Every structure is written in structure tokens, then in C-alpha cells.
Amino acid sequence: MSEAIVERPSADARTAPQSILRASAIAWFIPALIGNWLFAYHVAKEYFVTALGGNIATWNERLFVGLVQGDLAGNLALVAHLIIAFLVTIGGTLQLIPQLRARAPSFHRWNGRLYIVMAFITAIAALYMVWTRDTFGPDSLEVSVSINAVLIMICAAMTLRHAMARRIDVHHRWALRTFMVMSGVWFLRVIYACIGVVTQGEMLPGIASDMSGPLDLVISFSSYLLPLAILELYLQAQRSPGAAAKLAAAGLVLVAAGTTSIGVFGTAVGWLS
User: What is the C-alpha to C-alpha distance for residues 190 and 34, in angstroms, rounded to an integer?
Assistant: First the structure.
């Protein structure tokens, strides 16, 4: 009687999909890091430098609604929103660098606490501006901004909760979700910049100059829901024992990395000029 010999997968065969998945995340993080820091530079140059130079009135040329005379609370909310946008853009990317977490755990903890506090402040400031002044364009965009703000507070609260409970793996997943929804404004610019590069500056049907078109509505919601969905698929693939799920998720993340790279290039052309 002959016996069938069933070979077990080699260690390389089992670990290769996980390595590819991890590599895809790094491939996405590199342009995201560059793009976020470019955004921080843009905020500093367009708002902080102009304010220090006595040209704060130019803010109103760049925003749907900038500084409003007599609206002290709204103006303070706007200033807080811009300052926090600069800080969290840099601080959030630093939280995602594993080498920094390992070598400077104290910095990671305190930077994380500051990030969570600023997440709540920027979300509340955004909600205040949406519902007290016509800040973000059409009503549909204001609804999108409001949902984004609520998601930021939910994800930030869950990140803090699991950190305090020392459930580090769960805390890490919620921290990634917080980063994605906190980056909604940045992703919005990256998407529009990517479209601009691909179409060579041509306006697509459904996109309006005041962001009131139907495609503008899709982009506004996609700016945080799409990255969040990709992240969820990535996290599920990480925990899946199947190689197919890991490779499929890696492919999706690589597509996101390529799209992000194009968008970052487009924003760099505008922000560095």
C-alpha cells in the first residue's frame, strides 16, 4: 500500500504574503509621510507666515469663510483649527513610525496623548464652524465634514480607551483609524490633486469651482471613508491565515500608494511653487 506524502508549506511560503502585505503598507506610508509634511509646510507658509508678516487678511482669499469681523469665537475656532492641523499633521505621522515607538516610548506616549487631545479640539472646532458660519461651502460638504468630525472623536476615544486598558494591539488598530479620519482634509486635497495630474488640469464633469457638484460630494465623503475602508481590509488581511487575502489586500494598498503618490506630486507642484 502506497502512502501519499503531503508536504507542509515552507516557512518562506507562509511568511511571504505577510511580508508583501507589510511592504505594501510601507510603500503607502512613504508618500503619505512626504505629503503630510508638505501639507504642514503649506499651512505654515500660507497662514502662519502671512499672519506674522501682518498680512492676515489674505486668509480670506484662501478660505470659503476666513476671519469674520465681530465673530470672536468663530475666528478663534478657525485659528485653533489651523494650528492644530499643522501640529497633528506632523505628530500623527511620527506616531506611525515603529522605530520611533521602540526607541522613544516616552515621546510616543506623550505625543499620542497630545494627538488625542488635539483630535477632539479640531473636531469640535470644525463642528462649531460648520453649524455657526458658512465655512465649508455647500450643505452637502458641511454634512460630510460633520460626519468626519464625529468619526474623529469616536476613533480618538477608542484609541485612548484601549491604551489605558493596555490592550496594545487593539489600541494600535484604533490609532490607525484615528489617523485615517484625521487625515480627511489632507486626503481631500490629494484626491483633487491626483485628478488634476491625470486630467492635466481639465475639470471633470460633476466637479464645480465651489465644490457643489455631485462628484465633489462623492470626493468629500471618500476623503475619509475610502482610506478607512482600505485600512479595515488591510487589518483583516493581517489577521487572516490565508495567503490570498493578504496578497489581495497588498495589491489594493499598492494601488492606494500609487494614487497617493500621484496626488502628492500634484500638491507639491502647487504648494512648493
Answer: 12
Of the CA atoms within 13 Å of residue 272, those in its CB half-sphere come to 10
Q: Residues 187, 195: contact at Cβ < 8 Å?
A: no
Per-residue cell: 255: 494601488
Question: What DSSP designation does 48 have?
Answer: I
**Residue given cell 508678516 in the structure block:** 53
Answer whether residue 9 shows pLDDT above 90: no
What pLDDT does 251 receive? 96
DSSP state, residue 200: T
pTM of the model: 0.85
Separation between Cα atoms, residue 136 and residue 134, nearest integer Å: 6
What value does the mean pLDDT take over residues 9-19? 68
Whole-angstrom distance, CA of residue 193 vs CA of residue 155: 27
* Selection from 189, 193, 163 nearest residue 266 by Cα: 193
| pLDDT > 90 fraction of the chain, expressed in percent and rounded | 53
For the chain, counts of helices (H) and of strands (E): 11, 0
Q: Which residues, 6+ apart, have CB-to-CB distance to 79 below 8 Å?
A: none
What's the Rg (C-alpha) of the chain? 21
CA 211 remoteness from chain centre: 20
Q: Grid coordinates representing 237?
A: 488581511
Greatest distance between any 2 Cα atoms in the chain: 93
First to last CA, the chain: 77
Task: Check residue 8 and report its DSSP letter.
Answer: P
User: C-alpha cell of 229?
Assistant: 475602508
Angle between helix 11-43 and 72-95 (nearest 10): 150
Q: Supply 75's cell numbers.
A: 475666528
Rounded (5°) CA angle 218-222-228: 160
How far is CA 43 from each of CA 19, 167, 196, rounded to the nearest angstrom? 36, 35, 21
